[in-house]
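We read letters as residues; the fold follows as tokens. Both lines appear below.
***
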Amino acid sequence: MPSPRSPLSRLFTVLLAGALAGLVLAVAALPGGLLGGLAAKASLGAYAELPDALRTPAQPQRSYLYANDGKTLITTFYDVNRSDVPLAEIAPVMRQAIIAAEDRRFYSHGGADLRGIARALVANVKGGGTEQGGSTLTMQYVRNVLKTDPTRTAEERQAATEQTVGRKLQEIRYANALEKTLSKDEILNRYLNIAYFGSGAYGVAAASQRYFGKAPADLTLGEAALLAGLVQSPDEYSPIDGDKDQALARRGYVLDSMAETGAITAQQAAAAKAEPLTLHPTAQPNGCTAVAQGHDDWGFFCDYLRQWWLAQPAFGNTVKEREQALRRGGYSVVTTLDPKIQQTAQKQATSVYGYGNKRALPIAAVEPGTGRVLAMAVNRHYSLADNPAGQANHPNTVNPLISGGASVDGYQAGSTFKLFTMLAALEAGKPLATGFDAPAKLPTRYASDDEGNCAGKWCPANANPEWMDGYRMMWDGFGRSVNTYFVWLAEQVGEDKVVEMAQRLGITFRADSDAAFAKDDAENWGAFTLGVAATTPLDLANAYATVAAEGTYCSPLPVVSVTAANGQKVDVGQPSCRKVLDADVARAATDAARCPVGQQSAYGQCNGGTATSVDRIVGRPVAGKTGSSEQNATETFVGFTPQVAVAGIAANPDDSTDLVGSAVQAKVIDAVARVIRTAVDGKPVKDFTAPSRELAGDPQRPQPRPTPQPERRQQDRNLPSDLLRWLQGRGRG
């Protein structure tokens, strides 16, 4: 039952009734022709003064994020759960129901129904029932727009609902002006897209999904009548949050009203009233922690996209404006996320470590030549839910474990960084056939008192001397991951050139100490080639994708297209690429990268690899590199074909002293390889282009045996032993 009105409310109603009744009687006494002329003149003047929101609706709408098929919903973003639909996509019974419930004379009045206002005034003065407003759908639309217009101040929005004669007269004036300009169907469509239906649902599209889990085009007669009955008192009548009995009573009222207007027959009304209330409540996801059910792993990609969005000037001048655009702008975003690749990546990540394991295997997949991010997986739930005591980031976290940022600097990726040394050497004109008799331990120019030093000098060692030592070229040096070969090669070309190459290919130094060393002392970062700097799977995959694309670097991109609420494309979905390597240099590096994965280079110089199972798993041309940091604290593998690059790093994100151990390396290799296989499944087989003979060199020509100690480029540099140990951590392969 409706609650009784307070004496103050009744007194106000009487006063408002008196004022408006006088206005109604005065207007009714005017001659018809004069009344029409005055109305036309007034409405035209009023239209020119209409707020922009009434002339060009700019109501908040939720934005949709889809996978790369444009159909699979990842999540939505909104402040207000609302989405516009055209009138043709709203069931006819819904249109008829809202007119019967709220404004039976909608198609015959000119915006304000004077007879309806007078009838409501008389009823309200008498009391004894539900208070009636007498507002037409057009007047209600005006009120709804003005009270939710994001461009107006809070005071202006509040004034749009004040119970004053001035506000009511302004509403009538605006309604008349709209009716002179817009068609009835356009007004009805706008109303249905903005009306509040309770339970957080604004507009008929959101309401249809919220209450019945369906589109507004599929509403039945009974469902349409129930929704139409809610708008008078949405929170009170909502069958989810309010009173189901009152919701059913209102449904009955609407059905009877529809029968009285002739929209349906009395028999149809009776049948619909007899139907039980059957709800299928559907809550629209909001944000990255509310991704599609069963896919909370998508949240890490969603968060990466959101961070990308907040950096795009196309969506506003400030971060706040861009955030507001995402939540209120009604964008349709087709992302680069490939559900099939993502599913495999997530399966592989969790097969190595379970959700509750303190260790993690973050995996990223990138498309060469576009930078499109195809998958981001890790054995964690993207969730704000509490973790068990003592477990900082597992099984739940929202930290960017795959892409880095915030508190995540990344993880050491070991010998995968040897790629940057090889590229710098090739760019400097050293061919793949550059040879060196690699010793088991190589004394360097860095002073060290660390255990295992060579006469006070830092001397990195090969992890497996019997297999790694001896005369090596880039092919087998890379294939067997020979530390002493690549430390020597870095000294020949200059460590600063190696660091610059890594940065050129997108490696970002998020750790302050790494960034400082790269900026101020890169020429002395001797251990850089062994992968002692922190990186992420996304950075690493994209760096190798640059080589796969024959030297074209593309910024990581999480979107295919972005469409605004008005149907216009936003110019942000195009890859941002630039040439950073000569194509022949990239081809030469790729030729050597065939060796680690068990394939053969174009020049037949591969003679052993650290990840030979990849050839069997992928079953087509592939390249890649393993990486083990000091004491196997982390284990990494990154592989690529011309169509995809995938990287995975096994590590403990919360404790770098927790060593994952060498036993997990084979699992990491297997996991990444299987993601690659899924990514290329069904695509044409593409081979790598062989490098030029000039850049390959002549491996058959006898090579001079250089001395184990490379030529000093500058004076030895004394460093504190603790800092030196950190900087010169020995990569293993």
Q: What stands out?
A: Confidence is low (pLDDT under 50) at residues 1-17, 23-44, 128-132, 701-732.
